[in-house]
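Researcher: Good morning. I'm working through a list of sequences from a screen, and I'd like to move beyond sequence-only analysis. For each chain I'm collecting a predicted structure so we can compare shapes side by side. This is the next one on the list. No need for commentary yet; just the structure.
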Amino acid sequence: MAQSITDLKVGSVVNIDNAPYQILNNSFMRTAQRKPVMRTKMRNLINGSVMEKTFVSGESFEMADVARKNVQYLYKDPTDAFFMDMDSYEQFSFTLDALGDMVGYLQEGKEMTALLYNEKPISIQLPPKVVLKVVETTPGVRGDRAQSGTKIAKMDTGVAINVPLFINEGDAIRVNTETGEYVERVND
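Model: Good morning. Structure tokens for this chain:
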């Protein structure tokens, strides 16, 4: 049992109706003559649904017992992505729909973290930034611009990213996996 609504931080996992919900964002509110509340937006780690819930000060809630394990991404087929537990070498999979936008940042052979609930894998946690290779983009043309421009570039994993005009095919770039934004060019 958590003792306070201030324990509800972004990224923590709460057990609601016997299902683990990860907190995506939160805001603490305190008004005169009322109890403080924590408004949260949470994602169900089993089915991916998102819900909003307000916790009132003094309300009891339970933090979910979620374990983390190092796993390696192996490959994907048209419907599933396959991973291997680095300790036991057991393989498991997630549907591409369940992984959502994360599929665009999965690279064969790369290690990441799997979230386990009741000893069963329920989600993947990507590293904050990954290095991807540009496989297709238009040449950058400078024109009459007051500010620097961007263009779309397709990465080796299939995801499309907005990149600065100086990025060319074959360049390696670092991408933020949480926002999907370009961070920097990486020298080989």
